[in-house]
Amino acid sequence: MSSSLKYHRILLKISGEGLHSEGEYGISTERITQISGEIVEAKKAGAEVALVVGGGNIFRGLSGTEIGFDRVAGDYMGMLATVINALAIQVVLEKLGLQTRVLTAISMEQLAEPYIRRRAIRHLEKERVIILAGGTGNPYFTTDTAAALRAVEIGAEVVLKGTKVDGIYSADPVKEKGAVFFDELNYIEVIDKNLRVMDHTAVTLCAENNIPIHVFNLNVKGNLAKILRGEKIGTVVRGNR
To answer: 174: burial class by Cβ within 10 Å (0-12, 13-18, 19+)?
Structure first.
């Protein structure tokens, strides 16, 4: 483990939407390969990497309710979608030479290990990338909340939220040209301004456990490794500034 890194054990959160090409659904080989390359560079730098991935590129529980799905059933379908994404990322990471383990909050032992906190930490200590799928295993909780929860459990020093924009803005910068960029915020400001980069439950959980949230553009090659080295990229959410 490198002593020169700003963060040594990280929880990287990737939305399901980050795994498909613009305007399409499903899994983009190009996107997964690019993201996996960033994780390889983080491992080369000496970081311990845990990954939580969403499932919105395949199915979103909330969108299912709009067409008459029961919310609980829809959320479980979304959890299964995260497992599909986790297995796809595992395949690519291992082709790139990394050792990985997929751990799921819902038991499916033919595909992955059940999530057990001590086991997850041991995998990290053995320099394996762990991919944490199935959300929290409970309906009504997002994968953002799952990321915050797992970060607390495994002792991660930061939640890194990889997005397609440069950080947190006052509004969607794609839709509003005058959106203001924030390079640093505290947890209360994120909630008070209703900045929906992560849901409020996730932000509150990070605040209560003093885990910073670092939001950055994962589409820019090298950004993840630069953050690990302490370069000023994206938006950092932490305690009182």
So the answer is: exposed
Share of the chain above pLDDT 90, in %: 78
Which of 40, 62, 52 has the alpha carbon at shortest distance from 83? 52
| Residue 226 within any structural domain of the chain | yes
- Whether 3 is covered by a domain: the verdict is no
Structure tokens at 88: 């796809």
- pLDDT at 24 (0 to 100): 66
C-alpha 198/C-alpha 161 separation (Å) is 9
Residue range 179-231, pLDDT digits in tens: 999 999 999 999 999 998 899 999 999 999 999 999 999 999 999 999 999 99
Give the residue numbers spanning the domain of 104. Answer: 9-238
CATH number for the domain including 148? Answer: 3.40.1160.10
Number of domain units in the chain: 1
CA distance 94 to 5: 24
